[in-house]
Amino acid sequence: MNLLALILFGALAGWIASLIMKTDKRQGALMNVLLGVVGAVIGGFIMNALGYSGVTGFNLYSILVAVFGAVVLVWVGRAIV
Known about the structure:
Layout: H1 2-20, H2 29-49, H3 60-80
């Protein structure tokens, strides 16, 4: 069940981030999941560095942290390309 929750969490966070960054038309569901999961790791790392808690479970705060991390990931990716 934890794997299913991780996939759903990643898909939701990645999809929201792709809508914010206007990359939704270019990526599929698998990319949204990967973007959301990696974004959760990046967002958690950034929030911990700032003194706040990172991803704490399946809740609104964690979704916002994951979306923030995914947006940062897309932004860095665009800057590199």
